[in-house]
Structures are given as C-alpha cells and as structure tokens.
Amino acid sequence: RSNSASTCPILTKFQKDCATPTPYLRNVANAIADDMRDGLAVEGGGDLEMILTFVDALPSGNEEGLFYALDLGGTNFRVRSVQLGGKKERVLATESEQISISQKLMIGTSEELFGFIASKLASFVAKEKPGRCLLEEGRKRELGFTFSFPVKQTSIDSGTLSKWTKGFKVSGMEGKNVVACLNEAMEAHGLDMRVSALVNDGVGTLAGARYWDEDVMVGVILGTGTNACYVEQKHAIPKLRSKSSSGTTIINTEWGGFSKILPQTIFDLEMDETSLNPGEHLYEKMISGMYLGEIVRRVLLHMCETSDLFGHSTPAKLSTPLALRTEHLCKMQEDNTDDLRDVGSILYDFLDVEANMNARRRVVEVCDTVVKRGGRLAGAGIVAILEKIEKDTKRMGSGKRTVVAMDGALYEKYPQYRQYMQDALVELLGHKLASHVAIKHTKDVSGLGAALLAATNSIY
Ligand code: ADP
Question: 117 and 32, same structural domain?
Fold first, then answer.
C-alpha cells in the first residue's frame, strides 16, 4: 500500500484512459455516423439498429378529439387521456394515472399482465367526467401504446416482442404481437378501445415535443438507459423498400448499442463482464445513468485495495455492485462546503468509507472524470445525428433553428453532465452551426406524443 499523499497514479491513469480530446471525440462522432449509415443500408448493418418506426407523420397541431396513451416500460405503467382542441386551443384537458405492477405480474402470464392493464384502463375510462371528455359517436377510443422493450415493429400498430428486459419475464410473449395481446385483453374487459400506434418512448418524446415546437428534429432519452430518434429523409434509407421514397420518417437509432472505439478502461471491462449483455451496448454503459455510479464505485474499490487512501481495510459495501448510484455522484459534485461534508457523508452512508479531505477531493475527481467522459460522448452522438440531418437538409447551414428534445433524469438533474455535453457539441459542430442548435429539456411529453400519434394514425 502506498501513495496516499499528493499524487495518485491510479487516478492519473484513469483520467488519461477516460480522456476524450476533441480529435478523439470527432472520431467517435464519425464512427457513430458510419454505423448509422450502415444500419440504414441493411438490417443489422451496423451497431445501431436504426429501426423503422413507421411514424411518417408527426403531429401538426391540428389534431382534434379525445385520445389515450399507455406507457409500459418498468415497474409502473401510466395511463393518460388527452382532449385535443386543434391549432388554437391545443390541449383542452388531460388526465393521467400511474399504477404499479407487482413482481408477480412481471413474471406471470401475458393474460394476467394485459388483463390487469386492461382492467385499470377500463376503470380509468369509467372515472371520466362526462361532458369534459368527448368521444365522437360510433368511434372506438384510440390509444398510443408506448412499450419500452425490444420490439420488432411491423407496422404503425403492430410489433413482436424480441425479448423481455428490466426484470420482466412474462411467459408466452416472446415473438408475439404485443398490440394484439393488449387489444384482446381490452376486448375481454368490454373496453371499447383499440391501439392505433405502437411507439417507443424516444419517438413519443420527439412527437410530443414537435407538437409545441416545429423545429424539433431529434428526441433523446438520457435516464437509466439512453436512446435517440430523429427525422430522416426516406430517400436516405436504402433498407426501406417502399414504393414512395419521398417525405420523411422517424428512425429509432437504438444508439446505446454503439460499441466501437470507445475509451474503455479496466473498470468498464470488468463492469461489462458482469453485465447481462457483455460486449454489447458499450456506449450506453458509458453515458447512461444506470452505469455511471457503478463505474465510480469500481474505481474507488480499486483505489482502496491498492493504496491506503480510505484507510487500511476494504469495507464490504464498497465491494457491493450498484452500492453507489448516479444520484450520489451528482450530490457529491454539488457539494460546496469547505470540508466536503456531503461527499464525506455519502461515502460513509453508502460505501462505509471514512474519507479524509484528501480522499474526498479524489473521489470528486473520479466522479468528474466519469461524468465528463459520459457527457462528452453523449454530445458526440448528438453531433453524429445533427450532421446526418444537416447533410440532407442543410437547415442549420441556412440558419434554421434545429431543436433536440431531451428527456430523462440524468440530463435533467446533472448540471455538469449537461455542460460537458454542450461543450462537446460546440467543439465538434463549431460555433456557427452550434448557434442554430437548441437542446431543450422536454419533461414527460412522451405520453402526449403517444396520444398524438394515436390521433395522427387514427383509422377514422
Ligand atoms: P427512466 O428510468 O425511465 O430512464 P428517469 O428519466 O427518471 O427514468 O431516469 C432515472 C435515472 O436517472 C436513474 O436511474 C439515475 O441514473 C438518473 N438520476 C436520477 N436522479 C438523478 C440525479 N439527481 N442526478 C443524476 N442522475 C439522476
């Protein structure tokens, strides 16, 4: 054990391994752009899946009537109704409700899960105040269904589940049409409702944000996981073998899958090896909220084992996967006290570590290193998408405002992450183009977006 004083070779090496100077970041942006192009050329052509969403028409603002949204993607689902009043009046009324899904339902049968959802939808509808919610005579209620699991979409209102993730393991569903499952359950519950649009939450965010701002071209999620969707020209999608190649459509990049030329350290490698999908989604593992805290914990554990920075023994908690969360990194970086009191108590409370001032400073530097790399790499991804859009439309070059709609708690709550992302954007795009780009935090618009896409794709 050595090196508790002023220099810390582990930290220095870690910072060096994580570094993303501008030329390196440029290579990352180019590599992401290459994989985007390859993914658009043929199915499975690149790390990015570049999924066709079948969303060709984004909300215009003229939508009218009553529409619903259902969001299923984790331990809760959310139902929303939206009464749309057209261009002038916009959203006349909206109601929403969040319902938790029990562990039992997450690993039960599809009849149990969708039966439960349909029954809750039915009681949500039953609670509607008459007069406020207007449904036209003879029409079924229409629903936009946000289903945040890997789906192979086959049309705007159908898609088969590839595999369950996030703790779900509902039997007999893989390979089945998730829309049919929900439609059948709603019918069984006597609910006069149908799914008009199956969307993912990135698409929902893009659509919801576009409703309020017609310059929105990209939707990005930076929360537990990450994803990005954008407006693409159909003629630039070779794998889209449709008769009409004019107009635009939304591409769901699934950019978390990008896995080339990233600055992987031994800590990333170790975390990846113990993950559910080793070797895959390396970009997501560097930029999203689920992993940032865990990378820092692994660095601190290593420091603890190889120096006496945190005293002489290794606390069990410091060896516990996921003991440190991204929220904690954010709190530690926010600590303005002279003695870094908050850093000290987070380390003590969550990792059982008693850290002196020197150690506290080091810890903050580790957090900053991981967050800087994450924010800058996320920025490079956004640049890859913006440059792809620019190539086909020249909108920024001609001075047109271009908006990236952003949702997710990582972006929302981590100021340093946001700043690093913005810095990378300007470094790569240059001040001139970047001055036409606005990154806009659009919280929780994905439900509205799903309801709007139900309206845009209404069968009536
Ligand atoms: P989702 O799980 O659907 O992505 P959120 O957008 O709420 O939902 O993201 C939650 C994630 O955001 C958490 O897993 C965490 O990684 C990150 N996060 C939450 N709160 C904070 C915070 N205060 N600071 C930094 N990151 C946070």
Answer: no
Looking at the domain assignment, is residue 455 inside a domain?
no
Mean predicted confidence (pLDDT) in 298-320: 90
Q: Are strands 437-441 and 402-407 parallel, antiparallel or unpaired?
A: parallel
Q: Does residue 205 lie in a domain region? A: no
pLDDT of residue 133: 55
Residue 132's pLDDT band (cuts 50, 70, 90): low
**Position 5 pLDDT exceeds 50:** no
Q: Give the residue, by CA position, lying nearest to ligand 1 atom 7.
A: 409
Strands 91-100 and 64-72: unpaired
Residue 400 has pLDDT above 70, yes or no: yes
- CATH code for position 440: 3.40.367.20
CA–CA distance, 258 with 27 (Å, rounded to integer): 13
Please, what's the largest Cα pairwise distance for the chain?
Answer: 78
Q: Which residues pair with 404 in a beta bridge?
A: 218, 439
- Which structural domain range is residue 334 located in? 1-53+213-444
Say yes or no: CB of residue 224 within 6 Å of ligand 1.
yes
How far is ligand 1, taken at its centre, from the CA of residue 115, in Å? 30
pLDDT digits (tens, 9 = 90+) for 273-299: 999 889 999 999 999 999 999 999 999
Q: What is the CATH number of the domain that holds 178?
A: 3.30.420.40
What positions carry a catalytic annotation? 78, 148, 201
